[in-house]
Amino acid sequence: MHCKAVHLFNDLRKMLKVGDKVPDFLGTDEAGNEIRVSDYCGRKLVVYFYPKDSTPGCTAEACSLRDGMDELVEAGYAVVGVSADSAASHMRFKEKQQLNFPLVADVDKTVIMAFGAWGEKKMAGRTYMGIIRSTFVISDGVVERVITKVDTKNAAHQILS
Prior knowledge:
alpha/beta, Glutaredoxin, 5-stranded mixed sheet, two-stranded antiparallel sheet, 9 strands, 29% strand
């Protein structure tokens, strides 16, 4: 099976949408392993972007995915989380929450921006730039589904439904 992932990052100003090709290289995980979309050829890959390790919403989302992993794997999915936190932060978060999937440390925000998961956010009357919580389901290098209204406590179920 041939994956259609693109190998260079495009100048993307908008969030990737269904039918778009994704960058092949996602980055390096908490343990220093290189993560590529092409490594998951033949499976559906869930790449989810989250703002910050060990915050309440991000912890709820990660734990939902952890707890639903058996069902996700049975349905043919693999999961990779991405945030701008460091590999050391990811390692602590992964160990503390006993996460069973890799976390990419995208400290320079290359992948975050390539997927269009960086943008203007508003909270408590303040406007700022940050990671837009979003989930991409990828099949053979192409976006199959985008979830932008993520239910952090039911993230695994949301992907499966």
